Amino acid sequence: MVSASSSITTSSMSVSLSFRHKCFHKSRRHHAPRSQHYLPCRRYASASASSSSFQTSSSSSSSSSGSWRTRVAITDADATLDTSVIGESPKVPYAFKKQWYPLVVLDMINPDLPHAVSLFGERLVVWKDGQGEWRVFEDRCPHRAAPLSEGRVEQDGTLMCAYHAWRFDGQGECVSIPQSADPETQKRIVGNPRACATARPSFVAQGLIWAWGEGGPDALMESMQVEASLVPEMEGTGPSGVAPGETDAETGEPVPWNGGAYRNSWQCRDLPYGWAAFFENAIDPAHAVVSHHAVVGDRYDDPAHFECVTQRKMAADTGFRCEVVPAVPPFNQPGDYDDARVWYDFRPPCNLMIDWRHKEGSRLLTAHYAVPTKPGWIRHIVATVAQRGGGDDVLSHRWWKLNLFTLTSPAWMTHVVGPTFLHQDMVLLHQQEKIVLSGGKFRDGVEIAPLNPDEAAEAPLPQMWKDLVYSPYPPDKMDIMFYQWVEKHGPLPYPPSMPFPAIEMDKAKLFDTRSVHTDYCTHCQGAERNMKLGATVSTVLSAACAIVALSIGSSSLYAHMSTVGASSGVSVVDDIAGTVGAIPGIVWSSAYNAVTFGSLAYGLRIFLTLFETYEYSHAEDNIVVEGMASIGLAKDGPSLYINAVDAFLFGPGSGKRISDSMEKEGARWEDSEEGQVAASGVTAYERMKHSGATNAWRLKK
Question: What residues does the Rieske domain cover (predicted)?
Fold first, then answer.
């Protein structure tokens, strides 16, 4: 057996790769020396905003020359603006299994336990070894094929199988077999390559644990040659801190509008629909204000026409990128489309970037990962990076407000409210893909078997989708592009023996939150424990206060009744004022506390149900989403809450301060050689933004 382990360190991430190769014709083990390698992250230079520049558009018209949209166009380093649907993309299979995939969010899982995950229908186990490295093994003990995820991480940093207590180190090598007759016998047995667990190349970056898509003797070397789909703008950001920014070249002071960015907490949950269904939905801007009514828009007032302008032609390895023109709600206010722009960037194998930019410099970059776990299921991982620009107009934009809310929320709160968005179209997507694969028939409880014994069940999805849908207008362009990409470069490499699951008619199972998130999220588990404790304590306090109020109150009333009846013969009912006055203040305060604690306990128990399930129906109004709309998060316009959040994150008066800094930098650029040759008739502020000479319009790495 050849065993190799590589520790990889770059300026932005620490990478640990583990790999085991079995050589069955040898009885000896050969260890390759530990070496240093560089694993570059996928920069997607053509798609990344960090490599994008702004320039004066040549397509300005006299009728709209004053429009911000016609003056500015984003260009990519290796792609020109193209309005064709698919570009030049030859029909070649995409190597789905020879890619990196994020499996879990690092701060969500307990490092003392092994964690079961799936990728392309194969079970894997994620665990942390004695050297502090996260490892990914195939979830199978080499002894009797028991799942290692049901085992234990021992104090010595080994992974123990719970069946017969075999132990494995971070490289997958067996280090202990307690049933061995003697040390010599154990040494001989563990020296056999068949005694080793199968490790996958893996690394940690940007708060996620990544793994290679397959095992095998060439996995390590192949993984070293492929870049992971990381997000450069997320480097250095965190849910509670600001990324380091640049300083003014002359004064040495931090540049406010380039002072880094905030990232909200990663969200992660398993969703009961497939990889293709997710991307078809996620790259469809038209559905947002309808399916996500009262969360991001209004199903009656906000739908509007738009077109998808290709920014990067379709290709097997780089997907495609489009701009939504104009950026209709929820990205702008209805009918007023000059404030912000938005781009959608599909990056195989599992990444979608939604890039929203306000004309005054603020930016929201949302990174979605849809990891194909098994047929009909994905693991959805998402986070957003926010950078503040100048001015205060952005504070009235619902897209900015909704995302700003998550920046100051604790991780568990972000996770709990996530289903208020995701569950709104969950039933639609779960059923839609099965209807398509069934040839347009709604077949309740029937699994979808492969049409071709050599292909996965979802292989014919692109063709069946084209045959069934009626897509008569430009807003569907990105969906058409996506299925053309899948037709040329897919399908997903699921084993042909795996059928596609049947439609689940029990919606309670679809809306389940515990098994798809809470069971493995330490943030939510901690919050749930605290809330249960709070509910119990509140219940006890409420009962205690009620007992105090009743006991003292009844004693006081009895004494008052005796006194009144004996002295004057007046009934207690006739002497209401005297009766009320006879009740001590402690009774009233205890009664008030009993109601308060009881209400708190009731509210906590209601909230606790969100850790279990969250049901949604478009046919009925929903109190939670309507509540979000009522505080102004889902509507354009001012919000005192958002103003407070903005001041907390970026400081009071941040809009003016950042605008002044941008103006100063613009004036400096105007005096530079590049500024002198710029086109006349454009303000220094505009030239500064368009030139790409500064970073005002992009997030810093």
Answer: 100-211
Q: Is the dihedral of CA 369, 372, 373, 374 positive or negative?
A: positive
Q: Cα 525 to the chain's mean position, in Å?
A: 18
Total residues belonging to the chain: 701
pLDDT classification of 653: cutoffs 50, 70, 90: confident
Burial label for 523, CB within 10 Å (0-12, 13-18, 19+), is buried
pLDDT digits (tens, 9 = 90+) for 155-186: 999 999 999 999 999 999 999 999 999 999 99
Which runs of E-coded beta strand occur in 32-82?
Answer: 35-36, 53-56, 72-75
For 567, residues 6+ apart whose C-beta sits below 8 A from its C-beta are none
Give dist(CA 698, CA 355) in Å, integer: 10
User: Using CA atoms, how far apart are residues 429 and 347, in angstroms rounded to an integer?
Assistant: 21
Task: Reduce the DSSP state of residue 136 to 3 states and report it.
Answer: strand
Give CA separation, 286 vs 283, 296, 435, 620, in Å. Answer: 9, 12, 21, 22
Query: Distances from the Cα of 517 to the Cαs of 105, 109, 412, 424, 611, in angstroms?
Result: 11, 11, 11, 17, 9
Residue 162 DSSP one-character state: T
What are phi and psi for residue 564, nearest 5 degrees?
-65, -45
Instruction: Read off the pTM.
Output: 0.81
Which of 114-118, 185-189, 416-420 has the lowest average pLDDT? 416-420
Q: Is the pLDDT score of 651 beyond 80?
A: no
Which residues are within 8 A (CB) of 635 and not within 5 positions of it... i.e. 6 or more apart?
Answer: 298, 398, 629
For residues 333 and 321, is the Cβ–Cβ distance under 8 A?
no
Residue whose C-alpha is closest to residue 423's, from 299, 513, 520: 513
304-333 burial: b if 16+ Cβ within 10 Å, else e: bebebbbbbbbbbbbbbbbbbebbbbbbbb
Evaluate the CA torsion angle 102, 267, 11, 387 in order and state its sign: positive
Residue 143 three-state SS = coil
